Amino acid sequence: MTEPVVGALLERGFARMAGGLDGDAVATLRAAADRLFASQPAEPWSNAADWFAQAAWRPAHFCGPGEHTNLYDCLGLDERLDDAIESFVAAPRIRAIRETVLGPDHRLWYAQYRRAEPGAPTYRLHQDVYGELAFCVYLTPHATRAGSMVFWPGSHRWPRVLDRLPHLDPAVVAPYLASVEGDTGDCCLFFNKTWHGRAAAVDEPRLVFLISFIPSGPIEKKRRLPAAVRERLGPELQRVTAPDAALTFGDTPPTSPPLSCSFEEWPQGEADPTSAAHRAFAVAMRAAVRDMAPEVGALTENMLRDAGLA
Hints:
By secondary structure, this protein is of the alpha+beta class. The chain has nine helices and twelve strands.
């Protein structure tokens, strides 16, 4: 494994890659964002829950007063955007990272613009789907944490329990979090199993293009691109959106799972309270519930005790 970014990704669950896009490509993506934000019908964020529940590829532009601006499923809407993203995903370094982390059989999952708006709320800490790897390309400078993604370092090695906790604002656990500062064109890579969210933007908007990929998993995931959309894309995007790309392995998992899936199982056997990963997990659990109802704290302590980590 010679790619330094992959080493950092494995260690912390996220990493910075300088110069993922050159200035011309950044300008192309920014101009496309302006066109699409202006042309795509806007929907209130109250519609987002239904959109996610439908689990189908459909462009959706969510925004509103005091809210962030997102444009999901934005491929196939703008030829110049499609060409720029084709060049990005087909670049030898980007393809090599994907294949090292996800294996050769993987598929596109999300392609979206995200603009963190000043005055809009933080984005709670969460985890996403099995084995997912994301590339977050900075289209504006990210010189500080404000408006940037935040991560709990090492949390990709912990069990999937975050969705069982109440809403966890990054501000509550800010001392434990890290962000990835960078300039336009830089890229933040992360395992979507890593606890991640977004700090509030303060003085100016922060714009990114986020594209993620998933390997074969235990459950067949929907959201495959319609044929009419795929036909408008370049050869590498067509390859990673093929109908047979990364189909479920069902009840027969691979004997050698991709790197991104190697963290999906909590280490087997008795928990070791002296290991760094287990200690960090116990700290995270206690910090996460510190300001919540006493019964939540009690349940957390019982869980840690049952796991041998109290």
